[in-house]
Amino acid sequence: MLNNTTFGSQVPTIPQRTGLSRGIVQARAIFFADLSVLLLCAFLAILGRLLLSQYTPFDVRGTTIERSKYRQRKLGGIVNWYFDHVVESLLLIMQAAVLLLFCGACRFVWEISKAAVLIPLGVISLLFLFYLSAVIVRGGGS
User: Fold this and answer.
1) Could you count the other beta carbons within 10 Å of the beta carbon of residue 105?
2) CA 114 and chain centroid, separation
3) What is the pLDDT of residue 135?
4) Using a CB cutoff of 8 Å and minimum separation of 24, what contacts does 114-121 make?
């Protein structure tokens, strides 16, 4: 039987698991969101590629009029599904993924060193200014 004198006046403490810091968990969540956005972009690109491969005729049987009607029906489907907008949105999705990647990197570096986060923030700021100026110049030219 143990008594209180086994450890003397010191009371043993049980080590507690603290887990990951809140910032690391946030950075991982941002990286996971980035991965999800990239997978969505890849899915849409593959879906678009499949749709376009269905549009190109591999089977050249039938009269010219039948083949033309078939291609016109396929083109109508592409137009009805706003395929051009989906393809154009892939660029925006990729840009959002890059932004998420930079945000996750900044959050991760913030946990390591608050001074070291100035480098990725500077890069993000320069890229954002470049992007904004390109949008303004493109918008002003049309």
Assistant:
1) 20
2) 25
3) 84
4) none
8: left (phi over 0), alpha (psi -120 to 50) or beta: left
Average pLDDT across each block of 10 residues of the chain; the chain has 142 residues. List them in order.
Answer: 61 77 90 94 88 69 82 83 85 89 89 86 88 84 50
Q: Which two tokens stand for residue 141?
A: 């030219």
Domain residues of the chain, as ranges?
22-101
User: What pLDDT was estimated at residue 27?
Assistant: 92
Q: What is the pLDDT of residue 58?
A: 62
What is the chain's length? Answer: 142
Closest CA to 111 of 30, 12, 6, 16: 30
Burial class (CB in 10 A: 0-12, 13-18, 19+), 104: buried
Q: Give the per-residue pLDDT at 7.
A: 62
Tell me if 44 sits within 8 A of 85, measured CB to CB.
Answer: no
- Please name the residue that has the structure tokens 């986060």: 117
